TrEMBL record:
Domain of life (superkingdom): Bacteria
PANTHER family: ACYL-COA DEHYDROGENASE
Domain Acyl-CoA dehydrogenase/oxidase N-terminal: 6-118
Name the record gives this protein: Acyl-CoA dehydrogenase
Catalytic activity as recorded in UniProt: a 2,3-saturated acyl-CoA + A = a 2,3-dehydroacyl-CoA + AH2
The keyword ATP-binding is annotated on this UniProt entry: no
Species this chain originates from: Planococcus salinus
Annotated InterPro entries: Acyl-CoA_DH_CS (IPR006089), Acyl-CoA_Oxase/DH_mid-dom (IPR006091), Acyl-CoA_Oxase/DH_mid-dom_sf (IPR046373), AcylCo_DH-like_C (IPR036250), AcylCo_DH/oxidase_C (IPR009075), AcylCoA_DH/ox_N (IPR013786), AcylCoA_DH/ox_N_sf (IPR037069), AcylCoA_DH/oxidase_NM_dom_sf (IPR009100)
Lineage: Bacteria, Bacillati, Bacillota, Bacilli, Bacillales
SUPFAM superfamilies assigned: Acyl-CoA dehydrogenase C-terminal domain-like, Acyl-CoA dehydrogenase NM domain-like
Signal peptide region: none
Family: Belongs to the acyl-CoA dehydrogenase family.
Domain Acyl-CoA dehydrogenase/oxidase C-terminal as annotated: residue spans: 229-376
Length: 379
């Protein structure tokens, strides 16, 4: 067993850390306050190759792997969890299903521009009345000549409004339950597609989350992803990999909060000495660091399994469960270490705490991760 990162992984971490420190961190608080996505920053991620880390060069990627991708999401999230999730949804939720289930034409037409960062991807599964129970979706797709006509809406779509390409799931055969769902690649300019309400959120505020609406939206048959009736399977498998990205996001948020806490605890003096000299504070930092390292190991293991084409559904659910809970716990403690100042916007820990909460909710809530894990450990 080798726990050392390869030279390539170390290099990618350094490159992303430099980018995150110099170009993402300085405006993170301001973009959060203004709920503003920065397209130029995304374009720069594309130029650096970050938008296509795991995809082969023939599809516009840099030919690295899922571990490198997780490291990139972690490093971005260390300073700005919004930047982390924009990349994560783009890569795991939109790029992955096209890479895995797409035809050669679909990969060239859709994966390549996403990998190159010229187009942004999104994933539309959740509906107003179907969240955890995704199989209860209502959005319908009716055959009409060489097209399918989609009607319905999806909510809470990360990258909604900024994305060019949406992977959308709709019911093609209501009689066949899960086997009656099909995945479609929808372009933002397709007739009948529109973007609805933009959510005002607690955290990850510079990552747009919107409703998307299908009003007799015409999708050519060649844009079916995978096979007719394979949609539910594609949706679920996509989330397995997506959870590795969210686990990485959670590890990054927690690490950012720990780094800030260590620096503050060494600097802040009370009772004539730095607060870190109290074990009440330094033991807190020790516990935070330990939980983060355990979460990181689970996350990297899941990414390694995915890279090596080994089963990883259970491990990615465990990584997301552990890392999400760690991010929440660590960021709450970080605010505590900062005392009153932690409760203000003068320091980043309040933003980290707000951002951490979403990692316990999306791509399957913590309860749904437990459902996935318990089914696998008791079968
Ligand atoms: C900021 C943000 C971004 C998102 N991005 C996307 C996206 O890009 N694409 C997309 O398709 N969706 C996205 N989502 C949707 C997200 O995945 C769902 O919100 C999530 O899966 C939960 O669904 P729900 O909100 O309907 O909650 P519900 O399913 O209604 O759950 C409510 C509560 O009940 C619990 N619960 C439900 N069923 C069970 C059960 N069987 N056992 C135990 N507890 C249960 C849940 O854990 C939760 O605590 C996003 C959401 C947010 C907030």
């Amino acid at each position: 067993m080798n726990f050392q990162l390869s030279e390539e992984h170390v290099m990618i971490r350094k490159m992303v850390r430099d980018f995150a420190t110099n170009e993402v961190a300085p405006t993170a608080a301001e973009r959060d306050e203004e709920e503003r996505f920065d397209r130029e920053m995304f374009d720069h991620m594309g130029e650096l190759g970050l938008t296509g880390i795991p995809w082969p060069e023939e599809y516009g990627g840099i030919g690295s792997d899922y571990l490198a991708y997780c490291i990139a999401v972690e490093e971005l999230s260390r300073v700005d969890a919004s930047a982390g999730v924009v990349l994560s949804a783009h890569t795991s939720l939109a790029g992955w299903p096209v890479y895995t289930f797409g035809t050669e034409e679909q990969k060239q037409k859709y994966l390549r521009p996403m990998a190159e960062g010229k187009k942004i991807g999104a994933y539309g599964l959740t509906e107003p009345a179907s969240g955890s129970d995704a199989g209860a979706m209502k959005t319908s797709a009716r055959e009409d000549g060489d097209h399918y006509v989609l009607n319905g809406s999806k909510v809470f779509i990360t990258n909604g409004g900024i994305a060019d390409i949406y992977i959308v799931f709709a019911v093609t055969d209501p009689e066949s339950k899960h086997k009656g769902t099909t995945a479609f690649i929808v372009e933002k300019d397709f007739e009948g597609f529109s973007v609805g309400k933009k959510e005002k959120k607690l955290g990850i505020r510079s990552s747009p989350t919107t409703e998307i609406i299908f009003d007799n939206c015409r999708v050519p048959k060649e844009n079916i992803l995978g096979e007719l009736g394979q949609g539910f399977k594609i949706a679920m498998q996509t989330l397995d990999g997506g959870r590795n990205g969210i686990a990485a996001q959670a590890v990054g948020i927690a690490q950012g909060a720990l780094d800030a806490s260590v620096a503050y605890a060494k600097d802040r003096e009370q009772f004539g000495k730095p607060i870190v000299a109290n074990q009440g504070v330094s033991f807190k930092l020790a516990d935070m660091a330990t939980s983060i390292e355990a979460s990181r190991l689970l996350t990297y293991q899941a990414a390694w399994l995915e890279t090596n084409k080994l089963p990883y559904s259970k491990e990615s659910a465990m990584a997301k469960l552990m890392a999400g809970d760690t991010a929440m716990k660590v960021t709450v403690e970080a605010v505590q270490v900062f005392g009153g100042y932690g409760y203000t916007k003068d320091y980043p820990v309040e933003r980290f705490m707000r951002d951490a909460k979403i990692t316990q909710i999306y791509e399957g809530t913590q309860e749904i991760q437990r459902l996935v894990i318990s089914r696998m450990v008791t079968k």
